[in-house]
Structure formats: structure tokens, C-alpha cells
Specification:
77% helix, 541 residues, 3 domains, single chain, 3-stranded antiparallel sheet, Growth Hormone, Chain: A, mainly alpha, 18 helices
């Protein structure tokens, strides 16, 4: 198989076999040739300017993974959204990222990384502005969810291209440090979301979207000043594969997301789940027979690559959903405003940030197995202990376990991501990053959907039982519980005056109980990640 690289600044067109992505900081023949050409054009300070420009570009996408979670209660109340609709505001973005990331990586190779970065930044800015302009009324939910989908697609076009620019800008000897800085800073930016979201929401929740506009303008200016060359590879784009993977992921997440609304006995629920799995199976079969596939599935022949991605998948089931569920818990059960909820989540990052640095050092010294094993074990323990202390309604009783949970994920996330990129066979950095980021974002979206169903189901059951215990007839109790579990207010006249004064205390307690189920689910996911990490070969480095 061959690939054509077209460098517009010259008339030279070369055809070279695609080589493997080898150890840290090395690429195959095509990657080395391409990187050498671009590194010469980005001499001196321009390579550092290119790195800064790409960090500003991707900063919007990483911050958006967490900033919206903090503002979700305000968005829900001011736009009168259902709880399921509010989850879609978060999940639509993640699902769109996951469904189009592999396509974004391929487009960066075929159309050119600079063009895709500029398109992604511009699209992200426009869709952010439109999210912030969401009208009130019946259009609110489809409007904001629709533009969150387009925002996620813009991010998926931008991030693989941004990574390709960074890889190409630096010579091989400096590429490892540049990538470590890129992944470290961009990953750490998720910590900015809860804090910025808390402060901006005090003004208006719309500001969490509008803040992206000046960042995008700065990223566009820096990208133009960096003089990034446009380099393309003449390959076909597998649009059929892109459509299949997007449809399969969308249907599978839809089934879990809507299970609380449709019910687990509904044919719609199981039809969506079964159809999603079937379409993904068809996607895999089609890719194996496609000459220029969206994803080269033989990459998964490497055992280390499979383990890395499985650990990433299970960890991300817990990581991004933590911000949504912990934020809502802090505001419902602890009575915090958005600002204090952001500080509550900052404790999680208090463990995550230093552990991420430690995980990187462990990877350099002894490989990915040790930080993945230790991180999974620590994370599973932290989430389980955090769940046990949710009914102690204070940060003072919970902060050690938020630190543990954050530290566990911090230890494993960087090593698993980096090792996956450097273990891939016969693929470019853009393609492999597209795979790992697809895994990460699909897992986040699936985790939010599954754990959201757990929260709604447990909350409805416990609230119904609590209200029946207060003397409310079962049918009326179920109606009140259903309203509360969906995030709405009780219907007028549905709450008996005798229990109206007790309803708040009951909701606070039962919401904490439902959140326990969510955190235990996250602990189980990290426990499974531990089992997967133990399958990583001991002597593979």
C-alpha cells in the first residue's frame, strides 16, 4: 500500500510505503520524511509558535468537556429542559467528538492539517456563539443540542489536525518533549472547566460558550503567524466507514440515554442498542475489505495497543461523567452554587494533576503497565470510598476520596494514551490519535448515558419509596418522583401540603443515594480497567 504526499511549496510528489509508528518520538518512513520537510519550513521560533497556536486551538475543546457540566443546572432551569435533555447538552458534544474523530484524523492527512485546523477553529467559534444564543421556549432543547453536535464535529476536525501540526513542526529529537507538553497542557485544561464554569455562570450560563470566541480569534491569529505549511497525502476518504461508525455509536448511546424515558422493556430501547452493535459490527467487516479504510483494524493486532485502549475506554467511562454527576450532586445535595461546585471538583484535580506528572515519569522509566495497574487500583478504591461518604454532606468528609479518585485516573490516562500512539503499527500519528480519541470520547458518552440511566432509575425508585413512607399514595408518589428524577418541578397540586415541607430533605437524601450508585458504577469500571491492565505484557516497553 502506498500514499502520496503533496507539498504545495514545491513540485515534488513522492510515493512511499507507510511505515510503523515505533518507539516514543519515532515515526515510519512517510512520517519521518513529512516531518523533516515541515520541520525545515518551521525553523527557529516558528515551531514554538505553532505549538502555542495549537494549544490555544484545542484548549476550547478540552475545557468544553467539563465547563458545561458545572452550568448544567442553570441551563436546565433557565431553559426549562428535562434532565434527559440536560444530559444530552453534555453528551451530544462528546458523542459527536467520538463519532467523527477518526474521520477528522483522515481529513487532516488528505486535505491538509493547516486547512483542517482553521476550519475546526472557525466552526467551533461559530457553533459556540449559537449555543450561547439559545432561545427560550420549545425550540431551546433541539437548538442547543443540535449546535452542541456541530460543536463536537468541529472539535473532531481540529484536534487530530492540531496534533499533526505539532508532530510535523518539531524534529525527531525534540518531538517527545513537544508531545508531552501538548498532551499535558491540553489534558490539564479540563481542570479549568469547573472553575471557569462556576465563575461565568454567576453572570450568565451563556458566557461558558461565548468565552470560546476570543480564544478562537487568538488561535486563528497565532496559526496565521506561525506560517504552518499545507501538506496533503493523496488518499481516498472512507465516507462509508465514517457514516457507519457514526450511526453505530449514535444508536448505542441513544438506547442507554433514553432507557430511563422509554423504559427497559421498550422495543425502542433494545432496538437502538441491538442496531447500534450490529452497525458497528458491519463497520468492522467493511473496514477489513476496504482498500483505504477509515481505521486500519490490523492496528489492533498488537496486544499492548488493545490493552491501552481498553484501559482508556474503561477509565473514560468514569472520568468525564464525573464532572456532570458530581456537579449536580454538589448543587442538589450539598446546596452549593455553581462557583462552589467548581471548587468542589477542584479537589478531584488536586489528585489528578500531580499524579499525571508521576504517571509520565513512570512511563519513561518502566513502561505503561505499572502506572495503568496502580492508577486503576487507586481510582477504583477512591470512587468506592467517595460513594460511601456521600451522605456526609460536607467537603471535609469527602475530599480525601476525591483526591484518590482523581489521582488514580491521572496516573493511568497519560501513559495509556502515549503508549497506544507509540505501539501502533502501520499508521500515522493523526490516524492513531483519531482511534484513541474516538475510544476516549465514545466511552465518555456511553458512560454518561449508562450512568445517567442508573441515576434516574435509582432516584425514581428511592423517591417513590420515601414518599410512600410519608403517607403519599403510590401512584401519586411515583408521579412526583418521576417529575423530580427527570429534573422538573412537581406538577401544580401534585404534592400534598402535609409533605411539601419535607420534600426538599427527601430529594437531598435520595439524590445522594442515587449518586452513590453512579460512583459505584465508576469504581466497577476502574476495577475492570485493573483487570485489563494486568493483561499488559510485563516485559513490553
Amino acid at each position: 500500500m502506498s500514499t502520496t504526499e503533496t507539498v504545495p511549496s514545491s513540485t515534488l510528489t513522492t510515493t512511499t510505503p507507510v511505515g510503523p509508528v515505533g518507539p516514543v518520538g519515532r515515526v515510519g518512513p512517510v512520517g519521518a520524511t513529512l516531518a523533516g520537510q515541515l520541520a525545515g519550513q518551521l525553523a527557529g521560533h516558528r515551531k514554538h509558535l505553532a505549538l502555542v497556536a495549537m494549544l490555544f486551538a484545542v484548549s476550547m475543546t478540552f475545557i468544553d468537556q467539563t465547563i458545561v457540566a458545572i452550568a448544567s443546572p442553570s441551563i436546565q432551569s433557565q431553559l426549562d429542559l428535562s434532565r434527559t435533555g440536560t444530559q444530552w447538552v453534555v453528551n451530544a458534544y462528546l458523542l459527536a467528538l467520538a463519532a467523527t474523530f477518526a474521520l477528522g484524523g483522515r481529513l487532516a492527512d488528505v486535505i491538509g492539517s493547516r486547512r483542517m485546523v482553521l476550519l475546526g477553529i472557525s466552526g467551533f467559534a461559530v457553533t459556540s456563539a449559537l449555543c450561547g444564543l439559545t432561545p427560550h421556549g420549545h425550540l431551546a432543547e433541539p437548538w442547543i443540542v443540535g449546535f452542541r453536535i456541530l460543536q463536537g464535529i468541529s472539535g473532531a476536525l481540529m484536534i487530530p489536525a492540531a496534533l499533526a501540526v505539532v508532530v510535523a513542526a518539531f524534529p525527531v529529537a525534540e518531538r517527545g518533549r513537544a508531545l508531552a507538553l501538548f498532551f499535558g497542557v491540553s489534558g490539564g485544561l479540563t481542570a479549568v472547566g469547573p472553575i471557569a464554569g462556576g465563575y461565568l455562570t454567576q453572570w450568565t450560563w451563556r458566557a461558558i460558550f461565548w468565552i470560546n470566541i476570543p480564544i478562537a480569534i487568538l488561535a486563528l491569529v497565532l496559526t496565521a503567524c506561525a506560517g504552518i505549511p499545507s501538506v496533503r497525502r493523496a488518499e481516498r476518504i472512507d465516507l462509508r466507514g465514517a457514516a457507519l461508525v457514526a450511526l453505530g455509536m449514535g444508536l448505542s448511546v441513544l438506547g442507554f440515554e433514553q432507557a430511563a424515558v422509554w423504559g427497559w422493556r421498550s422495543p425502542l430501547t433494545w432496538g437502538s442498542l441491538v442496531a447500534g452493535v450490529a452497525v458497528l459490527a458491519v463497520f468492522a467487516a467493511v473496514e477489513l475489505r476496504t482498500k483505504s479504510p477509515l481505521v486500519r483494524l490490523r492496528i489492533f493486532a498488537a496486544r499492548e495497543f488493545v490493552v491501552d485502549n481498553l484501559v482508556l475506554f474503561l477509565a473514560m467511562v468514569a472520568f468525564v461523567p464525573t464532572f456532570f454527576f458530581a456537579s449536580v450532586y454538589a448543587q442538589v445535595s450539598l446546596g452549593y452554587d455553581a462557583n462552589r461546585a467548581g471548587l468542589y471538583l477542584l479537589m478531584f484535580f488536586g489528585g489528578f494533576a500531580p499524579a499525571a506528572q508521576l504517571g509520565g515519569r513512570m512511563l519513561d522509566r518502566s513502561g505503561a503497565r505499572r502506572p495503568m495497574v496502580l492508577g486503576s487500583a487507586l481510582g477504583a478504591t477512591g470512587f468506592a470510598l467517595w460513594a460511601q461518604h456521600l451522605h456526609e454532606y460536607s467537603l471535609g468528609a469527602q475530599w480525601p476520596y476525591l483526591l484518590m479518585a482523581g489521582a488514580g485516573i491521572g496516573l493511568l490516562l497519560g501513559p495509556a494514551s502515549t503508549d497506544a500512539v507509540n505501539r501502533a503499527i502501520d499508521a500515522s500519528y493523526g490516524e492513531v490519535t483519531g482511534i484513541t480519541q474516538t475510544v476516549r470520547n465514545y466511552a465518555s458518552s456511553l458512560g454518561l448515558a449508562v450512568l445517567g440511566t442508573v441515576l434516574t432509575t435509582v432516584l425514581t425508585g428511592h423517591l417513590t419509596s420515601s414518599l410512600v413512607g410519608l403517607g403519599v399514595p403510590h401512584s401519586q408518589a411515583a408521579q412526583i418522583a418521576g417529575d423530580a428524577a427527570r429534573g422538573g418541578s412537581p406538577r401544580p397540586g401534585s404534592t400534598p401540603p402535609a409533605i411539601a415541607d419535607h420534600l426538599h430533605a427527601v430529594v437531598v437524601h435520595d439524590f445522594a443515594t442515587a449518586t452513590q450508585g453512579v460512583l459505584y458504577g465508576m469504581a466497577i469500571a476502574l476495577g475492570l480497567a485493573l483487570l485489563a491492565a494486568l493483561r499488559y505484557p510485563r516485559r513490553s516497553h
